[in-house]
Amino acid sequence: MDDRQFRNAMGKFATGVTVVLTEVSGKVHGMTANAFMSVSLNPKLVVISIAEKAQMLKKIKQSGTFSVNILAAGQKELSMIFAGQLKEQRQVVFDYLGNIPVIPGAIAQIICEVSASHVEGDHTLFIGKVTNIQLEEELPLIYYSGKYRSLKEENG
User: Fold this and answer.
1) Among residues 33, 29, 16, 36, which one has the least CA distance to residue 83?
2) How far apart are the C-alpha atoms of 77 and 93, rounded to whole Å?
3) Which strands form 147-150's sheet, in the order they lie side by side?
4) To pair with 79 at 20 to 30 A between CA atoms, which of 20, 140, 146, 155?
5) Looking at the domain assignment, is residue 72 inside a domain?
6) 48 in a structural domain
7) Helix or strand (DSSP H, E) at 27
8) 31 within a domain of the structure (yes/no)
9) Terminal-to-terminal C-alpha distance of the chain
10) Cβ proximity of 115 and 129 under 8 Å
11) CA-based nearest residue to 151, from 50, 71, 49
12) What is the CATH number of the domain that holds 74?
């Protein structure tokens, strides 16, 4: 199989869209990611996967903390900003949960301390110990087969 076929196959898995944030020396750094999952309930752990070539890799190693912000259906533009898909610069306003930056209006803001990291292939997996969570009741932004999507609520 070639790289394109592998990417196409992985794109058949519908995912939510997250923005991972961290702060180093007073500056917020972020990236869009869909490589996120829960790992354990006790202790509460999640994992994110960051490419070795991504600038975020060094930033998370420096800070030792990050937030995972699960985006709401109306936050496609934020996803595109942090994925580098928009040419023009946009100002992004952050909130803080504790002292960790988060995306306002995200349906879940998950605060983590790095508890372990594992290099696998061309990515590093960061295991995050969840220290705080804030939730909103909105529909999620979905990514499937290379396109942004949204859920439709069923009536009845």
Assistant:
1) 33
2) 13
3) 15-16, 141-144, 147-150
4) 155
5) yes
6) no
7) strand 27-33
8) yes
9) 44
10) yes
11) 71
12) 2.30.110.10
